[in-house]
Design brief:
133 residues, mainly alpha, 0% strand
Length: 133
């Protein structure tokens, strides 16, 4: 696979991952563990959730230093793209109130999360700082 294709695949995967988190937030039916933390910190500090994702990723990356773990280009891209994609997607998504739409947003978020994760990990340019998705 060419490097250009790998970078495009990485960027698309990270963007889809961030958009998937936005769908889960709008569904308001629950979030993965790290995103519960991100949402809680966002609500307490009034820092937008996407920026909390970025800040948390920086903190986790700093914790890699004693482990002598070197981040890949994908790891560093993950640090920014996921939070920025979340911030770009949240304002354009409606907030569904009907249970069927909330369920569809949740299912869509889960599916998009899997597709995004597969794309960015499959690019082989390094895992994300946090990989519990």
């Amino acid at each position: 696979m060419s490097m250009t294709r790998r970078v495009i695949q990485l960027a698309a995967g990270l963007w889809l991952f961030g958009a998937s988190v936005a769908l889960l937030v709008r569904a308001d039916l629950g979030l993965p563990s790290w995103d519960v933390l991100h949402q809680g910190v966002s609500q307490v500090t009034d820092i937008p959730m996407g920026y909390v994702v970025i800040l948390a990723s920086v903190v986790v990356m700093l914790l890699w230093i004693p482990l002598r773990q070197r981040p890949g280009a994908g790891t560093l891209a993950n640090l920014l793209f996921v939070g920025l994609a979340l911030e770009a997607t949240l304002p354009i998504l409606p907030t569904p109130t009907e249970p069927i739409w909330r369920a569809l947003f949740m299912i869509g978020g889960i599916v998009l999360n899997g597709v995004g994760t597969g794309l960015y990990i499959g690019a082989g340019l390094g895992p994300g700082p946090v990989t519990d998705s």
